[in-house]
Design brief:
It is a single chain. By secondary structure, the protein is mainly α. The chain is 57% helix and 4% strand. The chain contains 16 helices and 3 strands. Strands 1-3-2 form a 3-stranded antiparallel beta sheet.
C-alpha cells in the first residue's frame, strides 16, 4: 500500500553459501546439480513421509580462538572463557578438559543436537560460549557478527586452527581449499575458479542426468520389494557418484573397484573421522597417533583412497582415461590449471583438491535434496507448483 518494498532479510541470516573469501567455490555446480535432480525426481516420482518418521536438523557455526593445546591446556581455555564472560557474553559453565562434550554426545545420540543448541540460544542469546572438550568455542548465530567473520577484509583475523587440520588433513591432505591458508589458498582459488565457469559446468550436465536417471530407475525397480526408501542414503550415494565421476572421470556403475573405494571406503573414513572427532581424538596430536579408536581402519582406508586417486591421475596424464562428460571434467581442469607464473598443480595438490571436491560436494548436496523433498512432501501446493513449472520447461 505504501509502495515501499518489504524489508529484505539480513544477507547473513542464513549460512552464507557464497560470502567472503572462503565462499563455496562449487556453489554453481551444486545448484545446477540440485535443480536437475529435483526436476527429474518430482517429474517421475511421488513421495510420502513414513508415518511417525522423526526428521531432525543439525547445523551450527562456531568459532574457537587460537591457543596452544600442549602448553597449559587448561589455563588458555579458562583465560579465554573469562575474557569473553567479562565482555558480557554468556555461556555454559566452564568444565575443565570436558566442557559440554558429554551432553552434546548425549543429545546427538538422541537426534536432538539442534534442539539442544536452540535451547542454549533461548538461555544465553544468539552468541554464547560452549566447551567442546578442552576447547572453548564461541557459538555465533548473530547476522552482523557473521558479516564481520565472512567479510573479505577481515579474512586474516579468522584462520583455521591446528585442531581443524587434525580432523581433515588425514582425510583429504593439506593442499586444498578447505585446509590451506594465506597465499596458498589464494593461489589455489584463482587456479580453480575457471573450473566452475558456466561453460565448463554445462559439459557435466550429462553426468548429472545419467546418474540421476539410474537412481530413479533403481527406486522404481525396487518398489515392489520395499515401499519405503531412506532418502538420506539415496541422495548421499547419488551425489557422491556425481561429484566423484566429475572429479575422477570414472564410471562408478561399471568400475567395481572405484565404486568400492569411493562409495564404501571413503564413507567409512567419514564415519570413523566423525567418531574420533566427537571424542576429541583427532584434535589432540598425542591421542591421534595411538593405535586405538579406529586408527587402523583410518590408516588402511586412507592408503586405499590415496593409491586409487594416484592411479587415476597417472592414467589421465598418460592418456589412458578420459572425461565421462561432454567436455573436460574437474580432473582435466585441475591438470590444465596454471597460476600467475605459469606453474601447474603438482600431483599431491591435484589429489588433495579432488578429494576435497568429493568430501564437500556429496553429503552437503545430498542433505539439501532431502530437506527440499521434505518441504515439498509437507506442502502439497508447493510440490504441485514445482511439477507444473518442470512440465512447462
Amino acid at each position: 500500500k505504501t509502495g515501499l518494498k518489504p524489508k529484505l532479510p539480513h544477507p547473513y541470516a542464513y549460512l552464507p553459501f557464497a560470502a567472503g573469501p572462503r565462499s563455496c567455490i562449487g556453489q554453481k555446480f551444486a545448484l545446477l546439480e540440485t535443480k536437475i535432480m529435483l526436476a527429474m525426481f518430482i517429474q517421475r516420482c511421488n513421495f510420502d513421509l513414513v508415518p511417525g518418521q522423526k526428521i531432525v536438523p543439525e547445523i551450527k557455526i562456531t568459532m574457537r580462538p587460537k591457543y596452544g593445546l600442549w602448553t597449559n591446556i587448561l589455563y588458555p581455555a579458562k583465560k579465554i572463557y573469562d575474557v569473553f564472560r567479562a565482555q558480557g557474553i554468556c555461556g555454559e559453565p566452564f568444565i575443565p578438559l570436558f566442557g559440554q562434550l558429554s551432553e552434546l554426545r548425549k543429545q546427538r545420540n538422541n537426534d536432538a543436537s539442534m534442539i539442544y543448541h536452540e535451547e542454549l540460544v533461548k538461555k544465553h542469546g544468539n552468541v554464547y560460549l560452549f566447551g567442546l572438550g578442552p576447547l572453548t568455542h564461541l557459538v555465533a548465530n548473530e547476522p552482523d557478527l557473521l558479516a564481520d567473520v565472512f567479510s573479505r577484509n577481515k579474512a586474516s583475523n579468522y584462520t583455521k586452527t591446528v585442531e581443524f587440520s587434525g580432523v581433515f588433513v588425514p582425510l583429504i591432505g593439506s593442499h586444498n581449499l578447505l585446509v590451506a591458508e594465506g597465499s596458498e589458498h589464494e593461489r589455489a582459488r584463482r587456479m580453480i575458479n575457471p573450473a566452475f565457469y558456466h561453460v565448463n559446468l554445462k559439459s557435466m550436465v550429462s553426468i548429472i542426468t545419467d546418474r540421476t536417471a539410474k537412481a530413479i530407475e533403481s527406486i522404481i525397480s525396487n518398489e515392489q520389494k520395499s515401499k519405503s526408501a531412506d532418502l538420506q542414503v539415496l541422495f548421499n550415494a547419488l551425489t557422491l557418484s556425481i561429484i566423484a565421476s566429475s572429479a575422477f572421470g570414472t564410471d562408478f556403475e561399471t568400475n567395481t573397484h572405484a565404486k568400492d573405494v569411493i562409495s564404501r571406503t571413503f564413507a567409512q573414513l567419514l564415519d570413523i573421522t566423525e567418531y574420533r572427532s566427537m571424542y576429541m581424538i583427532n584434535q589432540i596430536p598425542f591421542l591421534s597417533r595411538l593405535p586405538f579408536w579406529g586408527k587402523k581402519i583410518l590408516d588402511e582406508g586412507n592408503r586405499k583412497v590415496a593409491e586409487f586417486v594416484d592411479q587415476i591421475i597417472t592414467d589421465r596424464r598418460q592418456g589412458q582415461s578420459s572425461s565421462l562428460s561432454n567436455g573436460p571434467d574437474l580432473l582435466d581442469l585441475l591438470l590444465s590449471a596454471v597460476d600467475d607464473e605459469g606453474k601447474p598443480f603438482n600431483d599431491q595438490e591435484i589429489k588433495d583438491e579432488s578429494l576435497t571436491f568429493v568430501l564437500a560436494g556429496s553429503e552437503t548436496t545430498g542433505n539439501l535434496m532431502v530437506w527440499m523433498l521434505y518441504v515439498l512432501m509437507t506442502n502439497e501446493n508447493v510440490l504441485q507448483a514445482c511439477r507444473e513449472e518442470v512440465d512447462r520447461v
